[in-house]
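User: structure tokens for this one?
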Amino acid sequence: MRIDHTAFFNGYRSAYGKLTQGMVSGLELLGRNMEADPALKNVQWAAYMLATVKHECADTWQPIVERGPRAYFDKYETGTTTGRRLGNTEAGDGYAYRGRGYVQITGRANYARMTQVLKLGADADLVADPEQALRPAIAYRIMSVGMIRGLFTGKKLADYISAGACDYRNARRIINGIDQAARIAGYATTLEAIIRASIVK
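Assistant:
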């Protein structure tokens, strides 16, 4: 699936208004990673992934770091219920392994899991260097494998979007229950129309 990028951006501006240069750069890079992804063959999957990034990254279209003062992340520390669930085992892990990416992964265990699943080499080991999760290419791979294989919550894109059905609202369960599900479903519906109008025949 090849996209006419000019047509896509024109459609996006018509739907959502002006884009900053940072937003254009972020969308362009994200789009190129999506076009190069052999596992992404469904327009509706692509639309839902874009809708998720639009929401999770607050319209910046850039991988982001979970916000909050350092003390906020104490709830993820080793010894806490959440910290244990996230596999945080050393003091400071709550802050070190706070959320990062397009779809933010949190906790030492999740950083280790994605390092293994993506077969990242020593130069991109997410446990040794969590900031690697902010590199757009790696952030994209984390999102793609997580949403397509169901590695975030156990739910995957195919559970809600298939040849016979498309449930954008409940697809939110792939990421975070039904938090903001209707809003993100609306984004996905609009983005699907923009993508379809931009496909190079």
